[in-house]
Design goal:
Chain B: It comes from Streptomyces sioyaensis. Chain B: One of its GO terms (cellular component) is cytosol. The complex is a heterodimer of chains A (about 240) and B (about 325). With about 240 residues, chain A is mainly α. Chain A is built from nine helices and no strands. Chain A is globular, with a radius of gyration of 17 Å. The radius of gyration of chain B is 21 Å and the shape is globular. The chains are: A mainly alpha (about 240), B mainly alpha (about 325). The interface between A and B is large, with 49 and 49 residues. One fe (ii) ion binds next to helix 7 of chain B.
Chain lengths: ~240, ~325
């Protein structure tokens, strides 16, 4: 398999994997409007993934024929959906990061600039969707508040990795992006009457591990399901 | 109330004249109670079919064999959720809330199309559903774009446009499989074999057994009989199957030159009735999955309502 060394690969993997996870919600969403909204976000991300992966090689070969250790996505995006609060927390963390990164990339002469420029609008919608739901769940009922707090706490350990420099994106001001991210997340969580988590965000498995191809246990199962049919018919056209 | 006021008779005359003139009845217009309840029942069943119908196809989203197909399938399942939304809104114009209708679905008091009680066993089933099930739905629904009730007719215009995309995409998926490897071709043929007869049953029982047809035709809710629509569908599918390089599992299919139609074999109505009664392969699975999603989502809906109440916004 020919894989071009490009930062489009890790960013494309983020979009591909999160889109897949969101696709698992189809038919399970808590309300019909969310069937539409979650599918919308999943489709936007899949669209991004296809453009990004195509910069690195053949989109289907990359998605269906790589082994787990060859995927470069963040561990955050591969985390299972959990309850709706976990899905929203994951989306809030990721979309806030993606919006900041794409806004930056759109203004550079990177090969990613055109994609980033086109995607910023949709990513801003994803972030707003997650922001609004964080407010509703955080400042809703006692149960929803407990669930939302548990979700932001549980996924916090995967957020340190978001700001580890990505190969090929050395000019991105990662530390400044991190500060903006932390400010935005803090503001959303406070508005939602939630507590900003304080747990560790760095450690053997939480600092750039996904970008190095080290993933968490649920990821292998996810890939097994995603790749099974394609791999069962080598060379077939779909 | 048992006495009929004179103004009631006058209103009824206006209603009858509107229907007779092929004009639309709108939510604020007076309408007979039976017309209202027939529409609610039909629109609800249609809405429920859209959302239950998401399940058999969503079953393949996570295994779609190419990213292009995955995007098409996700968009299709999303469209079906959208159809559910328009239809529940159309039912709301008749004074019945979505919650009330979902309740009736979950408790088995209202039905959805029996076709979705069949399983999607292989990837080719996604294509067969698009081609045959969306195809049959279009044949059924195009005449509903002229239904006498305005909001339903308008919802159907939008729905039919999207269903015809689904039908073409399903056809194209099957064509790719049919022209692919031997294993892919066999997968496509197997799916068509399993979905053909249930698709014909989607038009409902034969005309002489159809309970609600005559009144619905008089009210212009329905425009063609079940058997007429079924025949129309068969006539469309036979040449398409040939173009696909696939066969339809009916040895009795023959062209009748005199009638100008394809004759087809006997439909197994015993199977239809069994599935309708709840004994199909997936009835239990579909409805419990739906109930589960609804129950697991209860805390989310409650939170949205509580937040809206605190902050003075609409919850939806
Ligand atoms: Fe539909
Ligand atoms: Fe459809």
């Amino acid at each position: 398999m020919n894989i071009t060394a490009t930062p489009a690969l890790p960013l494309g993997d983020d979009a591909l994997i999160l889109s897949h996870r969101l696709g698992e919600w189809a038919g399970h969403a808590p309300v019909l409007e969310e069937e539409v909204a979650l599918a919308n976000i999943a489709l936007d991300l899949l669209g991004q993934a296809r453009i990004l992966l195509s910069l690195a090689g053949d989109e289907d070969e990359l998605a269906y024929l790589r082994e787990e250790r060859q995927f470069r996505n963040l561990q955050l995006v591969e985390q299972p959906n959990g309850d709706f609060a976990h899905t929203i927390a994951r989306q809030l963390y990721f979309s806030t990061y993606q919006e900041l990164l794409f806004n930056h990339l759109a203004a550079t002469d990177s090969e990613l600039a055109p994609l980033a420029g086109k995607a910023v609008k949709e990513v801003a919608y994803h972030r707003d969707h997650a922001h609004q739901w964080t407010l509703r769940l955080g400042d809703g009922t006692d149960e929803s508040r407990t669930r939302m707090q548990r979700a932001v706490d549980a996924l916090w350990r995967y957020t340190g990795e978001l700001f580890e420099p990505v190969e090929g994106l050395e000019t991105v001001p990662w530390a400044a992006l991190h500060d903006s991210w932390a400010a935005r997340i803090t503001s959303t969580l406070e508005q939602a009457t939630l507590t900003v988590p304080e747990g560790p965000r760095h450690g053997a498995w939480t600092a750039g591990a996904g970008r190095q191809g080290l993933h968490t246990e649920p990821f292998g199962r996810m890939l097994a399901e995603m790749q099974h049919l394609h791999r069962s018919h080598p060379g077939a056209t779909w | 109330m048992t006495t009929i006021a004179p103004e009631e008779t006058a209103r009824e005359a206006v209603f009858d004249a509107t229907v007779a003139a092929d004009e639309r009845i709108e939510p604020r217009d007076w309408m007979p109670d039976a017309y209202r309840s027939t529409l609610v029942r039909q629109i609800a069943q249609h809405a429920h079919s859209e959302i239950i119908g998401m399940q058999p196809e969503a079953n393949w989203i996570t295994r779609a064999p190419s990213l292009r197909r995955k995007a098409i399938l996700m968009a299709k399942v999303q469209d079906e959720a959208g159809h559910g939304l328009y239809l529940y809104s159309a039912a709301e114009t008749l004074g019945t809330s979505r919650d009330e209708l979902l309740d009736k679905l979950h408790s088995g008091r209202q039905k959805y199309s029996s076709i979705f009680n069949y399983p999607t066993l292989t990837w080719a089933d996604v294509g067969a559903i698009g081609w045959l099930v969306d195809g049959a739905a279009i044949t059924n629904q195009v005449p509903l774009c002229r239904c006498s009730y305005g909001p339903y007719a308008r919802a159907m215009v939008r729905v039919c446009k999207e269903e015809s995309f689904h039908q073409r995409q399903g056809y194209e998926l099957l064509l790719t499989l049919s022209r692919g490897t031997d294993a892919q071709h066999a997968m496509a043929q197997d799916a068509v074999n399993r979905w053909w007869w249930p698709s014909l049953m989607m038009f409902g029982p034969p005309d002489d057994e159809s309970a609600h047809s005559a009144q619905s035709m008089a009210w212009k809710i329905k425009r063609h009989s079940n058997d007429e629509l079924r025949q129309r569908f068969v006539d469309i599918c036979v040449p398409q199957a040939e173009a696909l390089g696939l066969t339809l599992p009916d040895p009795d299919l023959t062209w009748n030159d005199e009638r100008g139609h394809w004759e087809f074999g006997a439909i197994d109505w015993a199977e239809f009735r069994e599935v309708l009664k709840g004994n199909g392969p997936c009835n239990e699975q579909r409805i419990s999955r739906r109930r589960q999603a609804h129950e697991e989502g209860a805390w989310v809906r409650e939170a949205a309502a509580a937040h809206a109440a605190k902050h003075g916004k609409a919850s939806r």
